[in-house]
Design a protein that fits this description.
The protein is of the alpha+beta class. It contains eight helices and twelve strands. It is globular. The mean pLDDT is 95. It binds coenzyme A.
Length: 322
């Protein structure tokens, strides 16, 4: 039961690793949103300056039985290692998950990290392996978000007439970049994270441009923002990703700036993004903390339903941890 590195230079090995991970996840979570193969492959083959990423596996010959990934952030949260472990359903409860975890912990420690963070996602009233395992390896729950799904089309939500919607796809146009960056950084500072003690990434123009270029290779990136007609002040934005060729979209950030709250801009911006989607995109995924009452209510009122509970978990690691 050796844990080895995935040979990321071998296309067949990459495919086998990805397929095993997908099978392992789908066994417990029919509504899981998985990163598309192309997007994952880009990460596996083209290193980022903001994170050191490693992929591990347990194999029996060419058959991949378990997978794990390690992400060491390099620009902020330098004490954290992000991890994920998946074991194919017929090979569980034989210690593979723990073996992968132990290797992740050894690497996190060697990289000077003091905590490992990950996600344990479960279907409400469904199998609870994720939480059982994370408790067994000493991880504690720090924050919960709900994963919600909606079928498209949704009834349109109008925009308060005091505002206009400014929308773009792909790279943010130059004339809006300063305002967009200010809102993105406000979002990173404002989003509720429960007991997670994390440093928000600060975007500058160069980092935004790099992220836009990487994301556009795998996704149709759509942004809808609201601007107040009277003074041009920006009230918020909503960021949506559609993996190339997919039948679903993935709703990322939606922010309404503090002084613009109370105008139902969140629903209006989401609705504006969905209205422009091609007809074959029939599902939207999103995540919201149940404690974020305003956004949770906005989502359920629009027609989203909760399909999964995602627990963000964290374990201490390091030379002093036995
Ligand atoms: C969670 C998962 C990785 C565990 O893999 P595994 O190879 O079965 O794990 P191990 O055999 O090493 O189990 C280690 C311990 O975790 C706990 N555990 C594992 N599965 C469990 C379950 N279904 N219910 C309760 N506890 C469980 C047990 O304490 C177990 O020790 P034991 O078998 O001696 O009782 C696997 O079930 C999986 O891939 N699930 C889907 C993806 C996922 O949830 N990943 C984890 C996110 S943190």
């Amino acid at each position: 039961m050796d844990v080895t590195d995935l040979d990321t230079s071998d296309p067949d090995a990459r495919r086998r690793w990805y397929d095993a991970q997908e099978r392992a996840i789908r066994a417990d979570r029919p509504h899981a949103l998985l990163e598309a193969y192309g997007a994952w492959e880009l990460q596996a083959t083209q290193p980022s300056e903001h994170a050191d990423r490693q992929w591990l596996e347990v194999r029996d010959g060419d058959e991949v039985l378990g997978t794990a990934s390690l992400e060491l952030p390099l620009s902020e949260n330098l004490d954290v290692a992000w991890v994920e472990v998946n074991v194919v359903a017929g090979h569980r409860r034989r210690g593979l998950g723990r073996a992968l975890w132990d290797e992740l912990a050894a690497r996190a420690t060697a990289a000077g990290r003091s905590r490992m963070g990950g996600e344990a996602t479960v279907v409400p009233d469904g199998p609870d392996a994720a939480r059982g395992f994370s408790a067994a390896v000493g991880a504690v729950e720090k924050h919960r978000e709900d994963h919600l799904l909606a079928d498209l089309p949704l009834p349109a939500a109008g925009v308060d007439p005091a505002y206009e919607v400014v929308a773009w796809r792909g790279r943010c146009p130059d004339e809006h970049r300063a305002a967009y960056l200010a809102m993105r950084n406000q979002m990173n500072a404002d989003v509720p994270v429960g007991d997670l003690d994390l440093e928000a990434a600060v975007l500058d123009d160069a980092r935004l441009a790099t992220s836009e270029e990487r994301l556009m290779r795998s996704y149709d990136v759509r942004v809808a923002a609201a601007r107040r007609r009277s003074d041009g002040a920006w009230g918020g934005y909503s960021l949506l990703f559609v993996p190339h060729g997919a039948d679903h979209a993935w709703q990322d950030d939606t922010l309404v700036m503090p002084e613009h709250r109370g105008h139902r801009l969140g629903a209006a911006l989401k609705s504006a993004s969905y209205a422009g989607l091609p007809a074959d995109v029939s599902l939207v995924h999103t995540w919201t903390a149940p404690s974020n009452t305003a956004m949770h209510r906005t989502n359920t009122a629009m027609g989203f339903r909760v399909v999964e509970h995602m627990y963000e978990v964290e374990a201490a690691v390091g030379p002093s941890i036995a």
